[in-house]
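[Automated response] Your request has been received and processed.

Submitted sequence:
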Amino acid sequence: NSNLERIQHAKKELSFLAQGGTAVGSGINAPKNFDRVFCKYLNRITKNNYKPSPNKYEAIASHDPLVNFSNSLKSLSITIMKIVNDIRFLASGPRSGIGELEIPANEPGSSIMPGKINPTQIEALSMVCAQVIGNGTTVDIAGSNGHFQLNAFKPVIAYNLIQSVNLLSDGIKSFNKNCLKGLKPNE
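Generated structure:
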């Protein structure tokens, strides 16, 4: 729940756009009310609630809201990694390990360990989390590379954020469907 609140809070900051701020945030030579008109039409297309940034100088020079959103995804990934590792250890076995949980046998068996259930969904979601954490580091570095009135690193920020959202969305759905729903205590 805390991670959801972090993501929702960070997402709110993404609603403010520097549109019409021109090169450095001053808005000089932009048509009057361009920012409001732009947001109005964008909101119709996206069904969101975008608003003009109250400080276009800051919004063009830095990408702090994007960095914050990325870090909320990184925090979620760290939490997920801890949870899936707990499940992995609690499901370890069959002859040694903790063995308190049974995970679904999506890919049962092992060439050297009869009865072993491979934790493939756990491994897949762990890799997703590792990638999102790495993407977050890229976004952090990109966010720090705004120089004076402009940060030109938005393409790498956008690429990593879109990848992180897609990976987490797909990975969590797969884990829920193929592992979590079939999890049982080993009585």
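Summary generated for your ticket: The chain has a mean pLDDT of 93. The radius of gyration is 22 Å.
If you did not submit this request, please reply to this message.
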